[in-house]
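Morning!

This is the sequence you dropped in the shared folder:
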Amino acid sequence: MSVNLTWLGHATWLLVSGEHQILIDPFLTDNPSAQVSPSEVDADFILITHGHADHTADAAEIAKRCGAKLIANFEIANWFAAQGVADTLGMNLGGTAELACGRVKMTVAHHSSSLPDGSYGGCPAGFVVETGGRRIYFAGDTALFSDMQLIGNMGLDVAVLPIGDLFTMGPADTIAAAQLLKAKLVLPAHYNTWPPIAQDAAQWVADMHAQADCQAKAPAVGETLKI
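The structure's back. Tokens below.
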């Protein structure tokens, strides 16, 4: 089964596995780096790592239009259900959910989580998505933590890590993260959207190759990778 991964800007990714589309953390309308609008993105499943607006802003619109199942922690799933999203699945850290195209496991992330109206957003999370014979880790917004080694023990094809610093890991910590995760390919996210999280992606790739001894790539916004 073909598996393609497209960076839509900031922390938003579209994972296409065969006929199924999995959208992660949709933030397009107010994203200055986005090249598509919410009306141009389809999804069967929407994964939300935490409640901040730069990860949730367009989720309800897309879910309602596409009839997508929205998967998040219990608090966020309930919040979206109250916003009129018909198909939600609330889960919690360590849990696994079966999808039509594979399965998804919710992992620990070290961050904060509140929803756009200020209500409690539960525990932040990452996701390991297994689909099409591939295992892809979306770390979400997180600091470096040593138990990434346990996630890496699952055997990862791809790890998507935030590199923007200030609110998440910065480039130096992603080198340590990559060494713990041992993914075949590492991709950056959550950077260059606004000046406070500006990073030199080319230098990051070079440093990852030199110091973490892993394959890294920084796709352009809108670029699709076959994984």
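Headline: The mean pLDDT is 98.

More detail when I'm at my desk.
O.
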